[in-house]
Amino acid sequence: MTLSSPSGEALLALFAPYCGGRRQEQALRSALDRLPLGQFDGERARRDASPHRFLLTWSPVSAPLQTCRCELSFQDRPQQLYAFECPAHQLLDWLMHCVDAGHRDLPDTFWQWLFLERVEEDGGL
Hints:
- The chain is an alpha+beta fold.
- It has helices spanning 8-15, 25-34, 88-101, 108-122; strands at 39-46, 49-58, 67-74, 77-87.
- The protein is 38% helix and 30% strand.
- Strand 1 and strand 2 form a beta hairpin.
- Helix 1 (8-15) packs across helix 2 and helix 2 crosses helix 3.
């Protein structure tokens, strides 16, 4: 017996308690639409320089507490790959901020977690 993927409404009900509830419904719906794509192509703005273009990819997930394996690479440094894991709801929260702000960049909370907190947890990348 093969289980089908949860419907959009079922996913919304699953993730909403972890991602701001119904008050964030539109951003959550948009992020859930992006989730099966498995990637986010974006740009990180820099002062007085062209932006860093990046690609964030992730493994398929269908539940908020499911571990999501992710990789981040930069166009100008393809050999430098950042691999990490996070709960699916955390990835969705970061994607929701992109949708909500209308940006092609991940929120500052993502970058702070990746480069500050995660580095300390791992003892360096």
